[in-house]
Amino acid sequence: MNYFLLTALVLLFASSLCHAREIALTFDDAPTPDSALMTGAERTRKLIDILVKAKVPDTLFFVKADYINKDTQQRLEQYAAAGFHLANHSYSHQSASELGLLDYPADVYKAHLLLKSQRNVLPYHRFPYLHYGKDLAAIIALQQSLTDLGYKDGYVTIDNFDWYISSLLTKAAEDKKTLNYDNARKFYVDTLYESIEFYDAIAKKTLGRSPRHVMLLHENDAAALFVGDLIAHLRAKGWKIIAPQKAYEDPIARNFPNTVFHKQGRVAAIANSKGVPESELRHPSENEQYLDQAFAKAGVLVDL
């Protein structure tokens, strides 16, 4: 077992004794279309209700701009009316590593044109798949292009596969299978909380402290169902939910690591730039086969 995973497991038991740590919630791919579990409109209402009830000070919804149409526009307006903010997640959600130095900024600018008239937009951009570019030269050039467009890096510090967990739930609904929602809730909360402690352990080892974290989530069914439970669990473990704007004031916002390894977020990238191998910077649950097995073991699907 590598050092960071061992430390994360220890922190799972010790975290309630620690001083409050800080974390911001952000949601990619808004406004995600309808699914077999719920319509997009239902998802937006559920997320707003949960975040407001939990008194989350703010969150960022990173918008995949080609999702914007007459119907989904209303959902963006609802997020803004509730006091939350929007940001740029590109237009077509293609990898910057594949689009390249000219086409990727053009894609971001296409999204920018659709977002600039929206309410409560903040000048943050997040790369789809956390792909910052195919090599270090491309990464540096794309960072400059985004700066020229007026954007700050909407980095994350805590990565996870919440999108795959949600896809398992949606696939079960599509297949007309019965879900045990209590077991699904526990599976979601436990899996994501383990990733939080894992990346916080990396931060403490690498930086000597727990930074103001930015958690990657998605505007998906799993979040609409269970993010309120995750918030309650975080607070019970001594975490404080903060606004993303506050999290992006952390010194690591100015520490852009000299590495091509950004896919697991800013903390992991900083650790990698200091010589920590990639194999130690990815939580085991960031793997589809692992989650398939854990999902089955968790008893989320009801045998009839």
Describe this structure in words.
- The protein is α/β, with parallel strands linked by helices.
- Helices cover 49% and strands 12% of the residues.
- The protein has eleven helices and seven strands.
- The protein has helices spanning 3-14, 40-53, 70-81, 96-115, 136-148, 162-174, 181-207, 221-236, 244-247, 266-273, 288-297; strands at 21-30, 60-63, 85-88, 121-125, 152-153, 213-218, 239-242.
- Strand 3 (85-88), helix 4 (96-115) and strand 4 (121-125) form a beta-alpha-beta unit.
- The radius of gyration is 19 Å and the shape is globular.
What are the SSEs and their pairings?
Elements: H1 3-14, E1 21-30, H2 40-53, E2 60-63, H3 70-81, E3 85-88, H4 96-115, E4 121-125, H5 136-148, E5 152-153, H6 162-174, H7 181-207, E6 213-218, H8 221-236, E7 239-242, H9 244-247, H10 266-273, H11 288-297
Parallel strand pairs: 1-2, 1-6, 1-7, 2-3, 3-4, 4-5
Helix pairs in contact: 1-7, 2-3, 2-8, 4-5, 7-8, 7-10
What is the structural class?
alpha/beta
Can you tell me the overall shape?
A: globular
Sheet with the most strands, sense and barrel status: 7 strands, parallel
Strand content: 5-15%
Average pLDDT reading: 94
Tally of extended strands?
Answer: 7
Which residue ranges are poorly predicted, with pLDDT under 50 across at least 5 consecutive positions? 13-18
**Helix-strand pattern, N to C?**
HEHEHEHEHEHHEHEHHH
Alpha-carbon distance between the termini? 38 Å
Helix content: 40-55%
User: How many whole angstroms does the radius of gyration measure?
Assistant: 19 Å
Oligomer: single chain
Treating each run of at least 4 consecutive H or I residues as one helix, how many helices?
Answer: 11
